[in-house]
Specification:
Helix content is 69%, strand content 2%. Helix 3 packs across helix 5, helix 8 runs parallel beside helix 10 and helix 9 runs antiparallel to helix 10. It is globular and about 45 Å long.
Amino acid sequence: MMTNEDTLRWLERVADVLHENREYLTQLDSAIGDADHGINMDRGFTAVRDKFSAMASMDIATQMRTVGSTLVSTVGGASGPLYGTAFLRAGGAAAGKTELAHADVVAMLDAFLGGIVARGKAQPGEKTMVDALTPALAAAKQALTANASLAEITARAAAAAEEGMKATIPMLATKGRASYLGERSIGHQDPGATSSWLMLRSLAEVCANM
């Protein structure tokens, strides 16, 4: 079971990891985007970090919705509305729950991806964060069906996200800012897929230590 303390620990880890990888994400984005993905994500989660003391007493759904609304209001570019919607949808999936069972965590990941797809209208194969999150969700559902532990479910999701992220390198971008580059987008790893993987890796780390 994940409690609100566990989900807060995950969000704290995400804030740390995005801060640590700020330059790396921006470097990836400089090749095919506006060179601001790392800066934007770090700014958004720095604003989220400022709310951690208040979030400690919130239920999980309210925590997720707080992250979502904060990202929408503080993150520039496409990633703010996309990740903001993802966390808002994740909050909806956790509504009324004081702790999350394995199936609830997978349902939250499903809602998270659903928010990004609904907002960005992206499909797998277009060189976006969807290419990391789609295989991650499939792996999580498969692990859930096999009665795996929460640590195993999230570890498999993170591993699948990493594979999906790497698979964006040879892709031609057909969505978002990178699509303007046409053939020149080939050979570069998608920054959004990378930040999605970092979030899922952080979740797996927290679940491994619960």
